[in-house]
Design brief:
This protein has 189 residues and is mainly alpha-helical. The protein has one domain. 78% of the residues lie in helices and 0% in strands. The longest helix is centred in the first third of the chain and has 29 residues.
């Protein structure tokens, strides 16, 4: 149920999604969804929690694997971990994009404080540990965050457009490597 709701919220945003559309996606009745969730908002919160929990698990697992394989944990490797995790969960980019573009969203604060800031904190600390962010420190952190979000989420939310215009499979290993190289050039130097 939560995965279907996540798909619906990612595709149509909070405002464009209804309990009826989620029920139709599942092939169940609306009362069944209301039995488990009191409101659309509760369903959204639970769906987003599961999505970001899964994203965190992907990131943590990749970091542990890299460490166990003797990796030094370079900035490039960290960026690849984050980009790969986001590619595996394109709903993250779509939900962030939907909520970020809704001027009346009360949910964006939750996304930012609970889920996005911790991810960017880890990335920033890793870049600092490698002394790679010195040239970026002159820039306001909030603008760097917006630029990083834009650089990572735009490619993912526009994946079908990239495929149609350029034949680019954004989820291929080659595309992930190119995205990581671009992010490294933009944010690490």
């Amino acid at each position: 149920m939560l995965e279907a709701a996540t798909q619906e919220f990612a595709a149509h945003g909070y405002g464009g999604s209804t309990i009826a559309s989620i029920a139709a996606r599942l092939g169940v009745t609306q009362p069944l969804i209301h039995y488990h969730f009191r409101s659309k908002e509760e369903l959204w919160f639970e769906s987003v929690y599961l999505l970001f929990f899964s994203l965190w698990n992907d990131i943590e697992l990749a970091l542990v694997e890299a460490k166990n394989n003797g990796s030094r944990g370079s900035a490039r490797e960290l960026l690849k971990v984050v980009v790969t995790a986001l590619v595996r969960k394109p709903e993250v980019a779509r939900i962030v994009s939907n909520e970020g573009s809704d001027r009346n969203s009360t949910r964006m604060s939750l996304l930012s404080e609970t889920y996005l800031q911790p991810i960017f904190k880890i990335v920033g600390e890793a870049l600092d540990a490698h002394g790679k962010r010195a040239s970026l420190k002159k820039q306001p952190p909030e603008l760097l965050l917006l630029a990083f979000l834009g650089a990572t989420t735009t490619v993912l939310t526009l994946g079908p457009v990239c495929r149609e215009l350029y034949g680019l499979q954004v989820d291929s290993e080659e595309s992930i490597d190119k995205q990581v190289a671009l992010l490294e050039a933009l944010f690490v130097g």
